[in-house]
Amino acid sequence: MGSDNMSLKEKSIVFIGFMGVGKTTIGSLVAKKLYRDFIDIDQEIEKEFDMPTTEIFKTFGEKVFREKEKNIIDFYSKQKLKIISVGGGAFLQEEIQKICLSNCIVFFLDLSWESWKERINLIIDSRPVLQGKSLDEIKELFYTRQQYYMNHHSKVETDNLDIESVADNIVDALKTAWELYDEH
Ligand SMILES: Nc1ncnc2c1ncn2[C@@H]1O[C@H](COP(=O)(O)OP(=O)(O)OP(=O)(O)O)[C@@H](O)[C@H]1O
Ligand SMILES: O=C(O)C1=C[C@@H](O)[C@@H](O)[C@H](O)C1
Ligand SMILES: [Mg+2]
């Protein structure tokens, strides 16, 4: 595995982080700014099952969702020049971490708990993993998940920044890296 035959500039970009940090929103904006295709893994899974994530969890269970998630990420991460947002639970699978870190440039979108909890109402209805949990339980999940996101190439601070600013910071960081490390 790996992407030895790909230049840094050709590698696909992957966004990771907890539910609701902005992977889908920011990923699609970065794709637009770089004129690249945007792939949202949750949306790809929903297309394959032709039902929303909550229904997939109810009908087939989380295990089936996770297996499909791994297969779709494996497929797209090996392609060039994509901008990929994975689901908040994708990096719980070590295999997915390995696939993404070896083939792509992985950005971790970081958001503090204090800022995140202001956003909960925007996302709770469509995220089955959050449903039926108290705020304290969600807080515990938020902190437990952080260890998985530590496996990345670059961390992006998002607290108190609007979507446009975060996307611009990412594009700037990429352009700097491409200039510094690509040999041509
Ligand atoms: N920097 C930001 N400032 C304010 N609101 C934001 C910011 N980033 C994202 N949001 C809002 O937070 C909500 C969740 O964002 P988004 O769906 O992109 O998260 P996600 O990381 O893709 O979540 P999931 O892992 O569950 O797919 C959206 O309503 C989005 O508009
Ligand atoms: O954090 C998670 O476990 C999840 C996040 C979402 O992006 C979806 O992938 C799904 O709702 C599971
Ligand atoms: Mg998303």
UniProtKB/TrEMBL annotation:
Mg(2+) binds at residue 24. Substrate binds at residues 42, 66, 88, 145. One of its GO terms (cellular component) is cytosol. It is found in: Cytoplasm. HAMAP family: Shikimate_kinase. Belongs to the shikimate kinase family. This is Shikimate kinase. It comes from Heyndrickxia camelliae. The gene is aroK.
